[in-house]
Amino acid sequence: MAAQDYDAVVIGAGPNGLAAAVRLAEAGLSTLVLEAADTIGGGTRSAQLTLPGYTHDVCAAVHALGMSSPALSRASLGDHAPTWVWPDIPLAHPLDGGRAGVLHRDLGETADGLGVDGRKWRRLFTPMLDNWDALSPQLLAPLLSVPRHPIVMARFGIKALQPASLLVRRFKTDEAAALFGGCAAHAFLPLTRPLTSAFGLMLAASGHVGGWPFAAGGSQAVADALAARLIELGGEIRTGTMVRDLAELPPHRAVLFDTTPTQLASIAGDALSQRYRKRLRKFHHGPAAFKVDYALDAPVPWTNEACRRAGTVHVVGTFAELAAAEKAISAGRMPERPFVLVAQPSLFDSSRAPSGKHTLWVYAQVPHGYTGDATEAIEQQIERFAPGFRDTVLKRRVASPAALEEYNPNYIGGDIAGGAHTGLQLVFRPTIARRPYVTPNKALFLCSASTPPGAGVHGMCGWHAAERVLNGALRR
């Protein structure tokens, strides 16, 4: 093989593209990663977005599945594995009157704080936590794959198939219902839809198991860890390299796309049939994020004490308010009181801001392609549970859905989840096919969040795609 030839070329240096490249390089394949931006990372970049000395995570901040992902484990990355920082409390969900639903890493402590619902919370999650080592690999795999532990998956599936609005009927308190509902709302779906409970169960359980950590120094550390391991294995990365056509690539045997299905269709061109490209372009994108990053003079003055110790705070109010907000954005309407997700990394990682100062990571779920300004709605929601919040703001940096798409072309219409979870697309991503990462062209593969297991910083979309490459085009 000539020096400029590669076994595999990966387009896109997000966590999935980098994870795919690492897996291929581990198998001894010559691997090149091409990234259009000047910095690797995709959804895991960090930057000083507001004031000097304040490090913000440009997209992902909290790594709920980082501790459970084989792609990010020390076994895969060795000494390059990122250093994790754990908050005192993984998650809090404030309610009016100074109350809050609080998810502690310890299941018993969480149950004790939920009053009459404590026993039900414990009963709901104990089977998952007892079988997490068997369950989590299946949850991070394609939904239709054959389970290695069918009984464990069946027990999970009975609960996961339910709409979140049905499962929360077992709870009597606002605290328990809102705490579970906020996790389920990461589906970007109305909470009356089937399988929304799967999101709530998986994320809440991961909080008990892994504690929802931050990457020390910023999420860029995750991408840097993957890149360091890849280079150690002999792989290469080129930034500032936009790929518009397969003809622009060096000689190769396989190409993996850490892109949207639409971008795959555009770059591949006639290397894919017109019929298949048409199917890719029918891929639906979901609701958007409207993001605001803050430099703060002091911590957020939450009324509830647990919120002041939480890494993540879900801000919306009761489960009924949450359900109304999710229903509105799925219908293309901006809710008056949106679901706002808040991360407080500088409370636990002093490298994020100057001494005594803080960063705050915030986004609201908004309709796909939303063109308005959600800043006021976001700040009203935070002020509702933290009066005086605006007085702590030194500077804010606003990113609309359009700005997010400009930053990362994968975020079409502000969709940071890699595609809608509606209809069959929840199960079949990107098209209805038994093998989601494979295209009709045996040399072309998709490895982005538009494939299973979907959104989140876990790298498993790339990991599984690389396995398909190793068992197909570049059979070991």
DSSP E strands, number: 16
The helix content is: 25-40%
- Total count of helical runs of at least 4 residues: 16
Strand content: 15-25%
CATH topology of the largest domain: Polyamine Oxidase, Chain A, domain 2
What can you see in these coordinates?
By secondary structure, the chain is an alpha/beta fold. It folds into 2 domains: 6-51 and 218-284 and 419-470, FAD/NAD(P)-binding domain; 84-214 and 287-407, Alpha-Beta Complex (Polyamine Oxidase, Chain A, domain 2), CATH 3.90.660. It contains 16 helices and 16 strands. It has helices at 15-26, 74-77, 107-112, 118-130, 132-139, 150-160, 164-167, 174-184, 196-210, 220-232, 261-268, 274-281, 319-330, 375-385, 401-407, 460-470, and strands at residues 6-11, 31-34, 46-47, 56-57, 84-85, 89-94, 100-103, 214-215, 236-238, 252-257, 288-296, 310-315, 340-343, 358-366, 393-399, 444-446. It has a 7-stranded mixed beta sheet, with helices on both faces. A 5-stranded parallel beta sheet has the order 9-2-1-10-16, sandwiched between helices. Strands 3-4 form a two-stranded antiparallel ribbon. Helix 1 links the parallel strand 1 (6-11) and strand 2 (31-34). The protein is globular. 57% of the residues are buried. The mean pLDDT is 93.
